[in-house]
Design a protein that fits this description.
Oligomer: single chain
Order of helices and strands: EHHEEH
Strand order of the largest sheet: 1-3-2
Shape: elongated
Structural class: alpha+beta
Mean pLDDT: 83
């Protein structure tokens, strides 16, 4: 399995704009992915944080889809 190209971080959660920058998408896309359940998020006070592990899982799903659904 190839390594996932996400910067190493001790953080478990990132704010939406950071998650968007990592994936190379806009904040609205992050909001849609959260709303559809494709990304997991948690609420911390007034902030919504994206769970880093769910970002990794999302990228792995995309990679699998692009490989034609074959197991990675």
């Amino acid at each position: 399995m190839e390594p996932l190209l996400v910067p190493l971080s001790p953080q478990k959660n990132w704010e939406g704009p950071t998650a968007a920058e990592i994936l190379g998408v806009g904040r609205e896309t992050i909001k849609r992915l959260i709303a559809s359940g494709q990304l997991e998020s948690v609420k911390h006070g007034r902030k919504r944080l994206v769970v880093v592990e769910s970002l990794k899982e999302h990228v792995e799903r995309l990679r699998t889809e692009q490989r034609g659904g074959e197991a990675a």
